[in-house]
């Protein structure tokens, strides 16, 4: 083995001091680059305004552009879906959330919740009807599980579906549903005499409405609403035939959580890089604040936690691509990476000082968004208990 003097090697990139890019294939880098280029052109210049104004005015055009790029349901096979790897999907989520968590929520809800539910649990007819147009961004989906009084305990849902002749009639409410105000189709979970079942509900069905939830201070670029089901009558063919019990919706949530493991790192990277650049430019006491030890400690700690989170996400992605990823392992990733990402954002905010609360910089926007990401798709408490049960063999949920 030949000896190479480490000091003769090129200095590491300050934006990637551990050389994480060496772990990616050329195809994976190309996917990442394509997503970044699209976002830089179509979203990055406008995202602060969308956040401040509380919505994306050209949401359908943007969704179609995401569909043309192939990121909607990109990890699913067939039916117009791109069929890419779990790692490629994760890298796309990272880049999308580096622009904004609300955009990544749009993609996650579309692909990993609504589309995955139909792809995994639907009939062939349902798949043929909905998946191609959803993959193209021509139809937007939402996923109705959470209710006003039911969050972490979906088994206590109050939404009911009853048979009436050959039809199903749905009554109930769902709450905090991303994409709901402009969705074309909702995947709704309801209790029946046969247990929990899933239903495909076109949003134009009589008795269905999706009023928008206003006054949010987080995920403001993402439209969130209620689903109100008041005697919504559906044909028998609207039921997802392969989903029985809570296994159906929980499998969908696991797909979305995997995307969050990667996505949260995007918000962290954006904030960390903003802080690093700011520390080199902001002069106090005659020199850049990046020359002071306390600032360097903050930057070093942020870089370390980001690196560890990235390695964890990549490891879980490789396991998923090998068919070896367990839900408990996704919980490890979601628990660690969102928790560390929000701490990175908070630390970056301190480096920017008062500028850290301005939308002229992305940091406070990412920090506020992550407050929602910390809670949805499983709270910190629930993922902690999932890991606790794995470590002890004792369930402590009740």
Automatic annotation (TrEMBL):
Q: Which InterPro entries match?
A: Acyl-CoA_Oxase/DH_mid-dom, Acyl-CoA_Oxase/DH_mid-dom_sf, AcylCo_DH-like_C, AcylCo_DH/oxidase_C, AcylCoA_DH/ox_N, AcylCoA_DH/ox_N_sf, AcylCoA_DH/oxidase_NM_dom_sf, Glutaryl-CoA_DH_mitochondrial
Q: What is this protein called?
A: Acyl-CoA dehydrogenase
Supply the source organism for this entry.
Microbacterium aurum
**Example GO biological process:** fatty-acyl-CoA biosynthetic process
Q: Which family does it belong to?
A: Belongs to the acyl-CoA dehydrogenase family.
Q: Which keywords describe this protein according to UniProt?
A: FAD, Flavoprotein, Oxidoreductase, Transit peptide
Give the span(s) annotated as Disordered. Answer: 1-21
Acyl-CoA dehydrogenase/oxidase N-terminal domain spans which residues? Answer: 25-138
Question: Which SUPFAM superfamilies does this chain map to?
Answer: Acyl-CoA dehydrogenase C-terminal domain-like (SSF47203), Acyl-CoA dehydrogenase NM domain-like (SSF56645)
Cofactors that this protein relies on: FAD
User: What would be an example GO MF term here?
Assistant: fatty-acyl-CoA binding
Residue span, Acyl-CoA oxidase/dehydrogenase middle domain: 142-232
